[in-house]
Amino acid sequence: MRRLTRSTVVAVVVLSMVVAPAVAAAGTGIAGAGSATAAQQQSTVTLTVSLQDPGRTAVGGAELTATWDGGSATATTASNGRAFLDVPEDATVEIAVDHPQYMRNSPYVVENATEQTVSITVRRQGSLTVSVEDGGGDPVGDTRVVLRADGEVVTNGRTNADGGFTTGTIERREYGLTVVKQGYYRVTRDVDVGESTRESVAVERGSVTLSFEVTDDRFEPPEPVADALIELETAGTFRTLDNGEATAQVPVNADLDLVVTKQGYETVERSLDVGESATTVRLNVGRTPAVNVTAVDDRVLVGGRTVVTVTDAYGDPVADAAVSVDGEEVGTTGGDGSVTLRFEEAGDRTVVAETADGTSGELTVTVVREATPTPTATATPDPTPTATETPPATTAAPDTGVSFPGFTPVTAVLAVLTAAALFVGLRRRTDE
Q1: Which residues contact 113 (CB under 8 A, 6 or more apart)?
Q2: What number of CA atoms fall less than 13 Å from residue 133's CA on the CB side?
């Protein structure tokens, strides 16, 4: 075995003295960082809670429950009404109070918690029973009852078949009471709630007039829509006049479903919250999207052209509409909604247009090889009356029973002259 010299031993000892503190220091630094992180994650503040009644009398023996996102804490108030709650700093904390005689209608809220003293007021427990009846003293069921304090709803519900509604346990204090039912006027009053308070409320039936205005705002200004059918829940159906208006008598304080329909127009559905004052309901309806296609000529020669126009439900031209012939796209419409088509084959051709709103019906264009003239009726002029000359009166010759076809007065004269000439010639021959 090699023997260590005195210088070697001294070097080892010195090295140990240098390295060990350095390692220890490094370890100490890592542990310190971890502790700081843990402390940062658990940063808390203390809320000092002072519980008292409206007369500032301390309330002891109350259990406090503080809750926040991801945690909770509890404490009990001492006889001086104080308790301490450790909560996360800057957290939103809700503090609920549980006591045999005192209560709060809602938890107390602390925003952005810091080290502070919080004063919380509690009141003695009470309840309220409301009875609702009509003018004849009969109970009115399914009536909504709302109780408010400081502008906030504390509790609400509906009466039973006997017209009654009882709150749960609430603070003894003054509340705003509202009783409302469809078809009845609303009743609002203040009520002081004690240990066990009863309140009777009488309600009265009522109705209100609604005026309807139905227009189409595609036009400027919007145009009235006549003969639109308005279906109103519980109130019946009504039709608009030429000015697009209609009126209806409906129950007060009602939530009604309304439907407006008309052929060629889209259906409009709305919910109406009817109050107790006459009001006007304005409704806008638009025509059902449609694509229409027409042609300047629906009968052309082979090799001929026709202009096809695509319009929407309002008759306005539709640009960029795809036009197909017999299922094959052949062009798109321009800004004026038209496109010129040429047909090279005879027969009935089917033209269809398609846009973002849908597809048109089929348009048939008949293509023929030669024009077929259409007979044109020629007017025949009325004959013009012609004056007829009246022949002079003649003496009828005696009837000999022999007819000479073709004899006229002229031929008769010629015949007489001829006979006379023959007679003269015959006599001369006799004299010779």
Answers
A1: 45, 47, 68, 87, 88, 89, 90, 91, 92, 93
A2: 9
Provide the residue ranges of all domains of the chain, joining segments of one domain with +.
Answer: 44-123, 127-202, 207-284, 292-368
On the question of a common fold for 44-123 and 292-368, the answer reads yes
Structural fold of domain 207-284:
Immunoglobulin-like (2.60.40)
Class of domain 127-202: mainly beta
Q: Does the N-terminal peptide bond of residue 221 adopt cis geometry, omega within 30 degrees of 0?
A: yes
- The position carrying tokens 């090699």 is 2
pTM of the model: 0.64
| Average pLDDT value for residue range 174-185 | 97
Per CATH, is 44-123 categorized as 2.60.40.1120?
yes
Instruction: Kindly report the backbone phi and psi dihedral angles of residue 158, in degrees, each rounded to the nearest multiple of 5, phi listed first.
Output: -125, 150
Cα angle: 127, vertex 132, 135; to 5 degrees: 150
Which residues, 6+ apart, have CB-to-CB distance to 324 below 8 Å?
330, 351, 352, 353, 354
- Higher pLDDT: 207 or 383? It is 207
Task: Judge whether 168 and 127 are in contact, CB under 8 Å.
Answer: yes
3-class DSSP string for the chain? CCCCCHHHHHHHHHHHHHHHHHHHHHHHHHHHHHHHHHHHHCCEEEEEEEEECCCCCECCCCEEEEEECCEEEEEECCCCCEEEEEEECCCCEEEEEECCCEECCCCEEECCCCCEEEEEECEEEECEEEEEECCCCCECCCCEEEEEECCEEEEEEECCCCCEEECCCEECCEEEEEEECCCECCEEEEEECCCCEEEEEECCECEEEEEEEEEECCCCCCEECCCCEEEECCCEEEECCCCCEEEEEEECCCEEEEEEECCCECCEEEEEECCCCCEEEEEECCECCCCEEEECCCEEECCCEEEEEEECCCCCECCCCEEEECCEEEEECCCCCEEEEECCCCEEEEEEEEECCEECCCEEEEEECCCCCCCCCCCCCCCCCCCCCCCCCCCCCCCCCCCCCCCCHHHHHHHHHHHHHHHHHHHHHHHC
Does the pLDDT value for residue 318 go beyond 60?
yes
Domain 292-368 superfamily per CATH: Immunoglobulins (2.60.40.10)
Q: Which two tokens stand for residue 51?
A: 């519980």
pLDDT band at 397 (very low <50, low <70, confident <90, very high): very low
